[in-house]
Specification:
By secondary structure, the chain is of the alpha/beta class. It folds into 2 domains: about 160 residues, 3-Layer(aba) Sandwich (Rossmann fold), CATH 3.40.50; about 120 residues, N-(1-d-carboxylethyl)-l-norvaline Dehydrogenase, domain 2 (Orthogonal Bundle), CATH 1.10.1040. Helices cover about 45% and strands about 15% of the residues. The strands form 2 sheets. Strands 3-2-1-4-5-6 form a 6-stranded parallel sheet, with helices on both faces. A 3-stranded mixed sheet has the order 7-8-9. α3 links the parallel β4 and β5. The chain is globular, with a radius of gyration of 20 Å. It binds nicotinamide-adenine-dinucleotide. The site of nicotinamide-adenine-dinucleotide has 28 residues, from α3, β7, α5 and α10. Keywords: NAD, Oxidoreductase. One of its GO terms (biological process) is organic acid catabolic process. It comes from Methylobacterium frigidaeris.
Length: about 290
């Protein structure tokens, strides 16, 4: 593995491209948005004319794309790897995506000798730049072993959870929990505030007890109580993740009442909280950030 492509140079992809280059890989990137291309070019990343230029030049291509629809268009569309790729190309999808779409794409690429692994990430743009991301990985043992040097250049923690698609199932489960925890933590803070307990002291108590979560330990102190709301992860992307989790629950024919209630609150929040807002803004269903 020497030359790595990165498709999608947004908040996450830009940092991953830089982390790969720091580890000594030759990195080529592509993004249709001029501002994203210019920012990465200014970082010294070589920018390709389009996706079709990347497949024949790269040993592995990392995707960091907004939706499953975009991932499918990039991989199975006319500018995709089936129309000319280096022998043994490995595709690493770090987007948060739909496991069924991922499995379908993998099946379509396999006859051309192209391996796909799903390696969605946690850790935000900061983690992407610092190469401290956590990855939950789906793929064959062989493909995951092949990808290891590339994955290690972008992440500090990697958990291989199963075959193709298992990474995306795990990431949707993780983000469904995070989305629900943001709502339940905001409700707990609201209750305690109205009962006369200071939110910072409340969190100190919860974080020493069994009700703690990543949301109470990281999100509330870093982005909510500070008033910063600048995590680099938008309402639009979290709504997409919750929608994908909701679709998976429905496709499996499951009745999961708390998950479904959380999904409904995230969906309905589109009326009052814009797509561009930080995803932690969901707490404003219960809390006034200016109070
Ligand atoms: P982003 O919107 O900042 O970046 C996505 C980039 O993809 C954009 O620059 C866009 O122009 C580009 N793009 C759109 N269509 C394209 C196409 N056809 N070909 C190539 N590029 C295309 O989003 P992000 O925050 O970087 O997130 C990327 C993925 O990572 C998403 O799936 C998201 O859910 C996931 N994720 C994000 C975070 C975070 O904290 N931001 C954390 C974990 C996972």
């Amino acid at each position: 593995m020497r030359t790595i492509g990165v498709i999608g140079l947004g908040n996450m992809g830009r940092g991953m491209a830089l982390s790969l280059r720091r580890r000594g890989f030759a990195v080529m990137g592509y993004d249709p948005a001029p501002a994203a291309r210019e920012a990465s070019a200014a970082d010294g990343i070589e920018i390709a004319d389009g996706t079709s230029a990347l497949w024949p030049a790269c040993d592995a291509v990392v995707l960091s794309l907004p939706t499953p629809e975009v991932v499918e268009a990039v991989l199975l569309g006319s500018g995709g790897p089936l129309h000319g790729a280096k022998t043994g190309l490995l595709v690493i999808d770090t987007s948060t995506s739909d496991p069924d779409v991922t499995r379908r794409i993998s099946t379509a690429l396999a006859p051309a000798g192209i391996d796909l692994i799903d390696a969605p990430v946690s850790g935000g743009p900061k983690g992407a730049h610092a190469a401290t991301l956590t990855m939950v990985i789906g793929g064959s043992d062989r493909a995951v072993a092949l990808a290891e040097p590339v994955l290690a250049a972008m992440s500090a923690t990697r958990v291989h959870v199963g075959g193709v698609g298992a990474g995306h199932v795990t990431k949707l489960a993780n983000n469904l929990l995070c989305a629900a925890h943001l709502i339940t933590a905001a409700e707990a803070v609201r209750m305690a505030k109205d009962a006369g307990v200071d939110p910072e002291r409340l969190l100190a108590g919860i974080n020493a007890g069994s009700g703690r979560s990543g949301v109470t330990q990281v999100n509330f102190p870093t982005w909510v109580l500070s008033g910063a709301f600048d995590s680099g992860f938008t309402m639009k992307l979290m709504r997409k993740d919750v929608r994908l989790a909701e679709n998976l629950v429905a496709a499996l024919g499951l009745d999961l009442p708390l998950s479904q209630a959380a999904a409904r609150l995230w969906r309905e929040s589109a009326d009052g909280i814009p797509d561009e807002a930080d995803f932690n803004a969901i707490v404003t269903l219960q809390l006034d950030p200016n109070a």
